[in-house]
Design brief:
By secondary structure, the protein is an alpha+beta fold. The chain folds into 2 domains: about 90 residues, Pseudouridine synthase I, catalytic domain, N-terminal subdomain (Alpha-Beta Plaits), CATH 3.30.70; about 160 residues, Alpha-Beta Plaits. The protein is about 20% helix and about 25% strand. The strands form 2 sheets. Strands 1, 3, 5, 6, 7, 8, 9, 10 and 11 form a 9-stranded mixed β-sheet that branches. The protein has a two-stranded antiparallel ribbon with strand order 2-4. Helix 1 packs across helix 3 and helix 4 packs across helix 5. It starts with a strand and ends with a strand. The relative contact order is 0.19.
Length: about 260
């Protein structure tokens, strides 16, 4: 299991000539074992997206397995890929296990700081929204997301996919929480950062399509800002058209929190 700060990476997946999380991990593994390997992850996070509990797997020859001390291996890998990437846990798994295909659900969190002022300590890890947001409207907008739907309105289509091909996903839970701090509404007031309102959106689903969470958050924030009504969410889903939803929220507020097997 991995955690990483995605700020300075071009996403998880390997890309030629670009610095990625997977590329750094593969480089370290190959340096330790002097062999080529492939790393498979549970969720291919985009550029700037973070992870608290990313799960990956890679295969090694049986002769290597006989001499591995997992604690020492984790320490060696962390020395090469830290501090931006951290190996939190290593364990042996059955050959039938796949970090991607064996996963039953993934939990993502998106963090918003609802404040007219920014913090040099948070700007890499949250979306700053200056306008006061109606949390009740954003909560109501989540209701229509629950269940199995075609989420084409919120997804960037993968290469080769037809324009009418359904993108079916099952959302098990979606909702907002807040730290309950003082309401921010008057941008003429300079509030200390400790008075800012932090909003966290969490969504649990069997799987996600490209930019799905960020697009959902962008649309929910538009509802909280009064630009859209919460009752529109059902119609947006049924439209199956990316153009009817709002643009995706910026990447720095998104975290892959947990993967369940």
């Amino acid at each position: 299991m991995l955690a990483y700060d995605g700020t300075n990476f071009h996403g998880f997946a390997q890309q030629k000539g670009l610095r990625t999380v997977c590329g750094e991990l593969v480089r370290a593994i190959e340096q330790v074992f002097a062999l080529n390997t492939e790393v498979i992850c549970a969720g291919r996070t985009d550029k700037g997206v973070h992870a608290l509990g990313q799960v990956v797997h890679f295969d090694l020859p049986s002769i290597e397995l006989e001499r591995i001390d997992l604690t020492r291996l984790a320490r060696s890998l962390n020395a090469m890929i830290g501090p931006e990437i951290s190996v939190l846990d290593l364990k042996y798994v059955d050959k039938s296990f796949s970090a991607r295909h064996s996963a039953k659900s993934r939990l993502y969190r998106y963090t918003i700081v609802n404040s007219p002022v920014t913090s040099p300590f948070m700007y890499r890890y949250a979306w700053y929204v200056e306008q006061s947001l109606d949390l009740r409207a954003m909560i109501l907008g989540c209701d229509a997301l629950i269940g199995e739907h075609d989420f084409s309105s919120f997804c960037k289509r993968p290469p080769g996919a037809g324009s009418n091909d359904p993108i079916i996903r099952q959302v098990l839970r979606a909702g907002w929480t807040t730290n309950g701090a003082t309401k921010i509404g008057d941008s003429s007031i300079t509030w200390p950062i400790e008075f800012a309102r932090t909003l966290n959106f969490e969504i649990l689903a069997s799987s996600f399509c490209h930019q799905m969470v960020r697009s959902v958050v962008g649309t929910l924030v538009a509802m909280g800002a009064g630009k859209r009504k919460a009752g529109e969410m059902t119609a947006i889903i049924r439209a199956k058209n990316r153009a009817v939803a709002e643009p995706p929220a910026p990447p720095q507020g998104l975290y892959l929190v947990e993967v369940a097997y």
